[in-house]
Amino acid sequence: MTRSLELNRVTDQNKKIHPHKFILWIGIGSIIMMFAGLTSAYVVKREQPGWTTYVTPVAFYYSTGIILISSLTIFLAGKSFRERRMIRYRKLLLATAFMGLAFMFLQWLGFRHLWETGITFHGSGAGQFLYIIAGLHALHVFGGVIALFVVYIRARNTKIRSYNTVPVDVVSTYWHFVDLLWIYLFIFFLMVR
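The structure corresponding to this sequence follows.
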């Protein structure tokens, strides 16, 4: 009887979501609501007189390609971690982090181009929303890059040999989320000028 209760307790424990994953999903839900509100405001605001349109900078296309590739590298990093291929895991984490930095650099180039063509934050029209929405996204990508570097440094520590998948899953899920969020924003900006 005691053994049966113990097994039921362990089974119930396994069904629960880890607190870090739960917090991540709450955060993702909040971020989704924020960007849904911002893109909705963009749609409403563009109907007002004086709205200026823009041409999507080429750098945004390149940054989209890089963020898509980074989704593959973080996926392969998680797979390598589960296979205990730690050298490959660390290399893929680092590659993902540097692609995140490259994404932000290309975003900066794209917005510099927009600024030079007269789409500024202070003008009327799309500029105000573009800078706020993409800037907030870049801030979230930067947070992901920091998390990737933290997980990488922990993986380099030879004194601690932890094969806990929770940090890897949390960082990977978050990274895939910011990737998908950019794809949504990119398509949104292409379709709703």
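The chain has a mean pLDDT of 87.
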